[in-house]
């Protein structure tokens, strides 16, 4: 008798293990590395985040001298948030980041 | 009359593109030829153009399933060059992440193997259980794939007591399920029919062809870098090296399933014994000249990184020898003599990760590729 | 039977429309149940309709190296023959829409035509996977067909007639043939052979997706693949219908509390139960190799059918 039969029959009467996203949503854990967001007030324009980024996704804006993160290049590793001396960059929990226009895929 | 069945580059049996030229007579496989290079991305060249800190992120992306082990091996090699000693707590944290990755990789493999033999139910159930481990990785590091926990000098985040509680809860659930899967694999008649006696790799062949990882341990060869050359916290932890004597696909599957049980024990031990302390040591911006070799036991076998530094903040050369490359040669004795129906499951039984493997094509063009090119392409070009 | 009645029977009930709708619905229910058994949501039960509709909207391609005529004709003949079977099966009443003298033999032959069309399609498609798949299909056909014919013969011998209408009428009086101890092994053998006939795990070897892409149907796409899909789904229904008619009483009209329930309802319920059984089996096994499948059919299953055959002689 196949041993998997009771499991399979039990599964018929249990609900599916699927979380029916996007109707049901699950809150990501605290350390989740989503979109990095810059707090412009805290930023001191030191440029450490620009140097730390492994993929050159951050540049300092010419006029405001605050970091702009190009999300199409960002690998969401969290190095920018790690090295910032004022903790001005935070990795938020936002992950639904699909864009129709690449020029809008910026976090600043 | 032999007939050539092309397995790849696009084939439902392969998760990544590779080309296996299988010559068959009826249903029996007579000869096998491998052609690699479809996933060649030039990573070793790129690693030589990036600083050590940036290169870490690239080395993690060599493979999505064994990402922590690639990052860990790179870190160990560079830390050796710089003479940096990693604090104890970080070593234990690295061990826990590495073992979580091993569990996740083996569950993935077992699901894929079940799919190869047509057992889709088992595939779905195994990947459902794999989600438990992925959620743990997300909890501790913030990302399910590419947790990026290791960094030059230590780890980036701490494993806190509330994480440890959740880890223990998931491990308990996982333990019960994996016990059931081991039971299934040893008793279900259809699984035994497809896996027992199939893809036999004799102990002698495994030794001569330098097989590594579960491929070798399934043929009774007890090579395990965690035991032979301890790294991270493995020197202080007690665990068994799982071997099987069956030499067939079933033995390799059981090695992997039993290794999941061992990994669960290792994680429990590591959480228990983890000392308090710093999470990272200071890492100098420039690394002195030298060469370093680091080895880790990736889920697929022995992974080796060779790093050469000649001044500056970038490596001069990084060479990655992945376990799948070492295991490819063992495919030939496994496949010749079996039937077409066995080809996918035998290919899957070495747990091939071609993303990891394809950095060797540049070197092979002189020696290996000339064999392939002259037999096929030249004949076609000159006829 | 005049031509208008024939056209109605062939195209509407119990022919193309009825068999197509029920067959595709059963296919969708199978996928939904498979999903639930695997602890996931599963597609909606009308997914097969959506898939077939999408395929019809695609471009019709024939590979240039393929034998065009056979390649195109195969799905049409397969669909045509499987629909014709429903004219010979008792669907609403013990008498089928068309009855001739020895229609059990015609049914067995007609049931094999979709298989042969798939094989021809595979061979004519000039694709290595098609060739291997067709070869495996022939081997598997030799396996299950023997068992199926023995089981069906046992039922026919018990009743003493090769006409399906007679078998159903006999069961109306004496109860289901499957409940008679002499014929229970034949019923079991027929169900096992049916699993091979409809190419479900553990016997979906000719179409093993992870080994030979899609077997004989690899090069098929668009409307031709849609026709083959419909033919396959109707085949599941047809095989279930035949086994229900021979062993489980066939269509029986009831009168519950004064409400007349036509025979087709009980027929559909029994067919559905049989298809549920194949779904269950398909989710608890791995795929066998062709030599293991043949061994299974020629030893265990054939033995069961043989026992029944001998005991009714």
Brief digest:
Chain A contains three helices and five strands; from the N terminus they run H-E-H-E-E-H-E-E.
Give an overview of the whole structure.
The complex is a heterotrimer of chains A (108), B (383) and C (313). Chain A is α+β, with helices and mostly antiparallel strands and 108 residues long. Chain A has 3 helices and 5 strands; from the N terminus they run αβαββαββ. Chain A has a single domain (27-107), classed as Alpha-Beta Plaits (2-Layer Sandwich). Chain A has helices at 5-13, 48-52, 79-83, and strands at 36-38, 58-60, 67-70, 89-91, 106-107. Chain A has a 3-stranded antiparallel sheet with strand order 2-3-5. Chain A has a two-stranded antiparallel ribbon with strand order 1-4. Chain A starts with a helix and ends with a strand. Chain B has one domain (38-338, 347-382): Cytochrome-c3 Hydrogenase, chain B (Orthogonal Bundle), CATH 1.10.645. Chain B has helices at residues 43-47, 52-60, 67-82, 88-116, 120-141, 161-187, 189-195, 203-208, 213-217, 225-228, 249-273, 323-328, 331-335, 343-349, 354-357, 361-364, 368-382; strands spanning 3-7, 19-25, 28-35, 150-151, 154-155, 290-298, 301-309, 317-321. The longest helix of chain B is centred in the N-terminal third of the chain and has 29 residues, at 88-116. Residues 360-383 of chain B have low confidence and may be disordered. With 313 residues, chain C is mainly α. Chain C has one domain. In chain C, a hairpin with a 2-residue loop joins strand 1 (254-256) and strand 2 (259-261). The B-C interface holds B 3-6, 11-13, 27, 114-122, 124-125, 128, 188, 190-191, 193-194, 339-344 and C 34, 37-40, 128-129, 131-132, 201-202, 204-205, 208-213, 283-292.
Topology:
The complex is a heterotrimer of chains A (108), B (383) and C (313).
Chain A: H1 5-13, E1 36-38, H2 48-52, E2 58-60, E3 67-70, H3 79-83, E4 89-91, E5 106-107
Antiparallel strand pairs in A: 1-4, 2-3, 3-5
Chain B: E1 3-7, E2 19-25, E3 28-35, H1 43-47, H2 52-60, H3 67-82, H4 88-116, H5 120-141, E4 150-151, E5 154-155, H6 161-187, H7 189-195, H8 203-208, H9 213-217, H10 225-228, H11 249-273, E6 290-298, E7 301-309, E8 317-321, H12 323-328, H13 331-335, H14 343-349, H15 354-357, H16 361-364, H17 368-382
Chain C: H1 3-11, H2 16-37, H3 47-56, H4 68-88, H5 103-124, H6 128-159, H7 164-174, H8 184-197, H9 209-212, H10 222-247, E1 254-256, E2 259-261, H11 263-283, H12 290-312
Antiparallel strand pairs in C: 1-2
């Amino acid at each position: 008798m196949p041993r998997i039969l009771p499991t399979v029959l039990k599964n018929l009467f249990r609900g599916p293990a699927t979380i029916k996203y996007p109707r049901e949503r699950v809150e990501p854990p605290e350390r989740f590395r989503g979109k990095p967001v810059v707090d412009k007030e805290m930023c001191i324009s030191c440029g450490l985040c620009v140097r730390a980024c492994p993929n050159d996704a951050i540049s300092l804006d010419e006029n405001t001298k605050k970091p702009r993160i190009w999300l199409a290049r960002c690998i969401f590793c969290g190095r920018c948030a790690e090295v910032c001396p004022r903790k001005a960059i935070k990795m938020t929990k936002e992950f639904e980041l699909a864009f129709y226009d690449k020029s809008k895929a910026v976090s600043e | 009359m032999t007939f050539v069945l092309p397995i790849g580059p696009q084939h439902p049996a392969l998760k990544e593109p590779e080309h296996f030229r299988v010559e068959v007579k009826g249903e029996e496989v007579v000869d096998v030829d491998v052609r690699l290079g479809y996933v060649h991305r030039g990573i070793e060249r790129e690693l030589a153009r990036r600083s050590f800190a940036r290169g870490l992120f690239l080395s993690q992306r060599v493979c999505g399933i064994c990402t922590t082990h690639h990052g860990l091996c790179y870190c160990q090699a560079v830390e050796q060059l710089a003479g940096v000693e990693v604090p104890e707590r970080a070593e234990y944290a690295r061990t826990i992440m590495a073992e979580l990755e091993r569990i996740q990789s083996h569950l993935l493999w077992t699901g894929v193997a079940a799919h190869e033999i047509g057992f889709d139910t088992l595939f779905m159930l195994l990947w459902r259980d794999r989600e438990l481990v992925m959620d743990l990785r997300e909890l501790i590091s913030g990302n399910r794939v590419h947790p990026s926990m290791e960094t030059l000098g230590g780890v980036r985040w701490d494993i806190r007591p509330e994480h440890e509680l959740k880890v223990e809860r998931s491990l308990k659930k996982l333990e019960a399920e994996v016990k059931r899967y081991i039971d299934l694999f040893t008793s279900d008649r259809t699984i035994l029919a497809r896996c027992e006696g199939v893809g036999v790799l004799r102990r002698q062949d495994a030794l001569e062809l330098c097989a590594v990882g579960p491929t070798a341990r399934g043929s009774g060869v007890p090579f395990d870098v965690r035991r032979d050359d301890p790294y991270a916290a493995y020197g202080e932890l007690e665990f068994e090296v799982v071997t099987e004597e069956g030499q067939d696909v079933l033995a390799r599957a059981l090695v992997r399933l039993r290794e999941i049980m061992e990994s669960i024990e290792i994680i429990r031990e590591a959480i228990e014994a983890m000392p308090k302390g710093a999470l990272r040591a200071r890492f100098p911006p420039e690394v002195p000249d030298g060469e370093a070799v680091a080895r880790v036991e990736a889920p697929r076998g022995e992974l080796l990184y060779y790093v050469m530094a000649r001044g500056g903040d970038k490596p001069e050369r990084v060479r990655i020898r992945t376990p799948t490359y070492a295991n490819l040669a063992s495919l030939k004795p496994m496949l010749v003599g079996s039937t077409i129906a066995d080809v996918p499951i035998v290919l899957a039984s070495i747990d091939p990760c071609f993303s990891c493997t394809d950095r060797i094509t540049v070197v092979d063009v002189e020696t290996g590729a000339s064999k392939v090119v002259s037999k096929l392409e030249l004949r076609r070009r000159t006829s | 039977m005049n031509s208008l009645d024939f056209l109605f029977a062939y195209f509407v009930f119990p022919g193309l429309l009825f068999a197509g709708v029920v067959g595709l619905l059963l296919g969708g229910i199978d996928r939904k149940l498979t999903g639930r058994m695997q602890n996931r949501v599963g597609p909606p039960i009308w997914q097969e309709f959506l898939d077939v509709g999408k395929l019809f909207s695609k471009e019709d391609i024939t590979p240039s190296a393929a034998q065009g005529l056979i390649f195109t004709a195969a799905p049409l003949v397969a669909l045509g023959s499987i629909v014709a079977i429903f004219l010979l099966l008792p669907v609403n009443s013990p008498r089928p829409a068309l009855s001739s003298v020895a229609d059990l033999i015609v049914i067995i032959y007609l049931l094999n035509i979709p298989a042969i069309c798939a094989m021809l399609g595979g061979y004519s498609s000039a694709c290595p996977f098609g060739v291997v798949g067709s070869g495996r299909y022939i081997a598997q056909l030799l396996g299950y067909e023997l068992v199926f014919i023995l089981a069906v013969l046992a039922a026919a011998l018990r009743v003493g007639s090769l006409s399906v209408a007679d078998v159903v009428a006999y069961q109306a009086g004496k109860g289901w043939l499957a409940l008679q101890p002499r014929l229970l092994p034949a019923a079991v053998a027929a169900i096992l052979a049916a699993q091979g006939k409809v190419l479900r795990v553990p016997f979906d070897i000719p179409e093993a997706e992870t080994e030979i892409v899609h077997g004989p149907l690899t090069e098929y796409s668009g409307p031709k693949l849609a026709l083959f899909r419909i033919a396959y789904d109707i085949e599941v229904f047809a095989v279930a219908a035949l086994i229900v008619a021979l062993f489980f009483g066939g269509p029986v009209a009831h009168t519950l509390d004064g409400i007349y329930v036509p025979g087709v309802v009980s027929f559909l319920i029994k067919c559905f139960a049989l298809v549920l059984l194949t779904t269950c089996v398909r989710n608890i096994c791995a795929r066998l190799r062709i030599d293991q499948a043949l061994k299974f059919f020629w030893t265990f299953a054939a033995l069961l059918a043989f026992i029944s055959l001998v005991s009714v002689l």
